[in-house]
Design a protein that fits this description.
The complex is a heterodimer of chains A (about 110) and B (about 110).
Chain A (H helix, E strand, L loop, with lengths): L8 E5 L4 E6 L8 E7 L6 E6 L2 E4 L4 E4 L5 E6 L8 E8 L10 E6 L1
Parallel strand pairs in A: 1-9
Antiparallel strand pairs in A: 2-7, 3-4, 3-8, 5-6, 6-7, 8-9
Chain B lengths: L3 E4 L2 E4 L5 E7 L5 E8 L3 E10 L2 E4 L7 E2 L9 E3 L8 E8 L8 E2 L3 E5 L1
Parallel strand pairs in B: 2-11
Antiparallel strand pairs in B: 1-3, 3-8, 4-5, 4-9, 5-6, 7-8, 9-10, 9-11
Classes of the chains: A mainly beta (about 110), B mainly beta (about 110).
Chain lengths: ~110, ~110
């Protein structure tokens, strides 16, 4: 299963766009890329899933280059309530393993 | 309301006293998983189940057992808990192979003294 690497932490300000990049150099052909958000003492919450190119939903966009060795989660116009840990996962079949995550702090 | 429920939410127990944490989902999902979360170690998968009577080990299965006799339930059993199993536990479910959108329960905070 491909190992993922993300920045440990990031800071931003309200209203800004935030981009969190995840590296997954050993991603396999059938793997999907998934992102989750977690608030303290709560279970993670699914944000978005993609395989290639760009995926957009009501809360985020996911950009995946052609080689799929990395992916970027884009959060438009963040607010204080977006302060959380964001996890990138590479999912293969039945296996879903969380990495260390990126702690995003949004400041006023 | 679609949800994953866990019970109990909080539990303090002593070393060696068998316990079960229940997990139930009402979405008819095929896949269910158990994770533990510890400071500095993130979320680690304990066991997962692809369907009734089909389970497999995750990253940290030692000291745990699971069963999947019904599609909706996936209990986590600690036969002889030890202090190193003090942790925050999450149960999750997802529809099947086409989706990696997992739904997580509220968590169970377990303390073993």
């Amino acid at each position: 299963l491909a190992k993922t690497t993300q920045p440990i932490s990031m800071d931003s300000y309200e209203g800004q766009e935030v981009n969190i990049t995840c590296s997954h150099n050993n991603i396999a052909t059938n793997d999907y890329i998934t992102w989750y958000q977690q608030f303290p003492s709560q279970g993670p919450r699914f944000i978005i899933q993609g395989y290639k190119t760009k995926v957009t939903n009501e809360v985020a966009s996911l950009f995946i280059p052609a080689d799929r060795k990395s992916s970027t989660l884009s959060l438009p116009r963040v607010s204080l309530s977006d302060t959380a840990v964001y996890y990138c996962l590479v999912a293969e079949g039945d296996d879903m393993r969380f990495g260390a995550g990126t702690r995003l702090t949004v400041k006023p | 309301e679609a949800q994953v429920t866990q019970n109990p939410r909080y539990l303090i127990t002593v070393t060696g006293k068998k316990l079960t944490v229940t997990c139930s989902q009402n979405m008819n999902h095929e896949y269910m998983s158990w994770y533990r979360q510890d400071p500095g170690l993130g979320l680690r998968q304990i066991y997962y189940s692809m369907n009734v009577e089909v389970t497999d080990k995750g990253d940290v299965p030692e000291g745990y057992k699971v069963s999947r006799k019904e599609k909706r339930n996936f209990p986590l059993i600690l036969e002889s808990p030890s202090p190193n199993q003090t942790s925050l536990y999450f149960c999750a479910s997802r529809p099947g192979t086409s989706s990696y959108e997992q739904y997580f329960g509220p968590g169970t905070r377990l303390t073993v003294t």
